[in-house]
Hints:
Elements: H1 31-36, E1 42-45, E2 48-51, H2 63-80, H3 93-102, H4 108-121, H5 125-129, H6 133-140, H7 146-164, H8 172-175, H9 183-193, H10 203-211, H11 220-228, H12 236-249, H13 277-281, H14 287-293
Amino acid sequence: MNSTNASSTSGNSSTRKPIITVHCARRVEPAGAIAAARSVALTTLHGVAKVAAPVRAAAQESPLALKRRARRMNRELAGMYPDAHCELDFTNALELSVATILSAQCTDRRVNEVTPRVFARYRTAEDYAGASRAELEELVRPTGFYRNKTTSLIKLGQALVERFDGEVPRTLAELVTLPGFGRKTANVVLGNAFGVPGLTVDTHFGRLVRRWGWTPETDPVKVEHAVAELIEKPEWTDFSHRTIWHGRRVCHSRRPACGACGIAGLCPSYGIGPTDPDEAARLVKSTEQMLASR
């Protein structure tokens, strides 16, 4: 993540100055991904572009070989996505908590369109705790499932006031007790608001680590634990961003751009998508394309 992840709490003053400044909606071109679509992991032999041969089946790897491959893939992803970051806009832990709850079954772009008005109206946990349900529902309606989300936000505010003096707690054990929080939301807040390493297992993350042969698990908690054994803890938050970016831009659920993937030579699933470099390159999505299509 490019932005500085300074520790922050929700604050109790409407005139507080933001402690964290994260410009998550930056439209930065994923230079590594676009470069990969044209050259990375591609070699030219007799005028025909080819991707380096993929690794042998993950089932044949020793635990040590798997860990080495996983860490090498993370290093390659770091080069491909040096600007990978949280794509939700926020200035403190409370705002990120709210934005993450609103992001369920909703695009980050839509959430970022809604949250400025929400954050302007509700600045503290006390504000959410005492919110008018009708007013809050109307504000968050564009994110979908607005009644359930409104309930979560009001109960979140109440829980923070009653149990944590209006502040967002800084431990996983405490965060997962909050309304609207699961391990995914807790790890998002820990990693991006407090600088505490966390693995964010969303649909992209789970899909990719299974394709990479890191784990066959589908349960998010089991996926998280499996990946935690492979990737160094200080890398967890940034690795999550890189993986999610790669899933959104290159390794799509239906037609992954295998022939334009910068880590194809390390992936046992190479070939499940188009391997022709030109065809695959057309599938790679830039940040601008992603925003325009949402």
